[in-house]
Predict the 3D structure of the following.
Amino acid sequence: MSGPQNGLPALPQGVLELIARLERAGHPAYAVGGCVRDGLLGRPARDWDIGTAATPAQVSDLFDGDRVLPTGLPHGTVTLLLEGGPYEVTTFRMDGGYSDGRHPDRVTFVPELLPDLARRDFTVNAMALHPERGLIDPFGGRADLAAGLIRCVGEPRDRFAEDALRILRALRLAAELGFAVEDHTAKAALAQAESLCRVSPERLREELTRLLCGDHAAPVLARFAPILFTLIPELAPTVMQRQNTPHHHLDVWTHTLETLRNIPAEPALRLTMLLHDVGKPACRFTDAEGRDHFRGHAEAGLRMADRVLRRLRYENDTREQVLRLIRHHDLHTPPELPAVRRMLNRLGEPALRQLLLVQRADIMGKNPVGLADKLARIDGVEARLEQILAERLCWRRADLAVGGRELIAAGHRPGPALGALLDAMLHEVMAGRLPNEPQALLAWAGRPGGPLERPGP
Ligand code: ATP
Ligand code: MG
């Protein structure tokens, strides 16, 4: 491993070997982009990108026999599955013309590093690191890293016109790194936000998810809300939407951002907070005393969220999680065993735990008056949940001490009525009115055909 020089990060052994192998064959090679940025920040790199003068064919030949994947040949990228990898090896290139605002019209491979750094989006992403030649930083990326600034390489207006996704990438990087967006870059991003509609939903989704999961998502979204609203116009009416209720002291948008700060950085949870109150503006009703009500906002909101998430091509599993959480976000389960068992039965353990996180975050964005009581209710529900699981209390059909088989053996007829009988039995057990013991359950179910046989619930 090369020792750090001038405070430069050391490159891992696998990267050093890769660079050495390319250079022995006469092709200059560097670590480039995000891994250099993260190394200088002392953060772990997400992936290792190597830039080289070698063409993709030359890279493939050189590593023939190793595991070589032609992941992005038109862009000059080959993925090498070597020890410590994967490594993305990309030929130095220049991007010519962007007539559609999303892809270069053509890519030209070039033998030098500099034009390759010049086509990159931000100064902090336009640095290269070499074990002997050190840091190559033609655009002042290291100074911007120290100042905490996201700044376009070159003229922001042109760079965003070439590829509008860079607008969202600027916000994503600011949210992940806790950086500010430099003034010219910020102005151009806001002015050109509309052009994001030309970018494919899949690329937008990728960056939006990372933006939302950034440690600094809330302040970035507060500053750049109009950019988010080009992707999700449904949220625009939440800005300045007052909530004249004792529960709230903030408008819906400011409340939404506050809840984002208080939820773990998981995509489904962050998306839920972003969208949980999107239905409120359409559902507002002000009564004779001037108090606002938002009845039905969870249902209305989940229909809107459904459209948003489909439009952005979120996978079904994420969409379903988010919709379930929005549907239940305003449902206040009392901290009592029967009610918590019913919630557990309805949602299952993982979703109920998610819901408690969502409800805590929601409360954290509400009026501080009354906050302690609201949080105590959530703590109570959670304590009951732990009790149910620890004591293995019955909360689903499978937990009942008798099942369909035993009922049939006792003479009950198979069929839908049997299922209804089991559900009614479960209901009684969860309510604490019936012990979960075979004899008691069979006695409660009654003799088939006898006076005790019960109809469904
Ligand atoms: P991370 O390490 O978190 O993945 P990253 O900066 O490496 O962040 P990638 O999407 O992996 O992001 O891109 C790798 C590099 O490619 C960037 O650092 C940047 O130099 C360049 N790049 C990526 N997307 C663009 C773009 N749309 N326009 C210009 N350069 C880009
Ligand atoms: Mg990367």
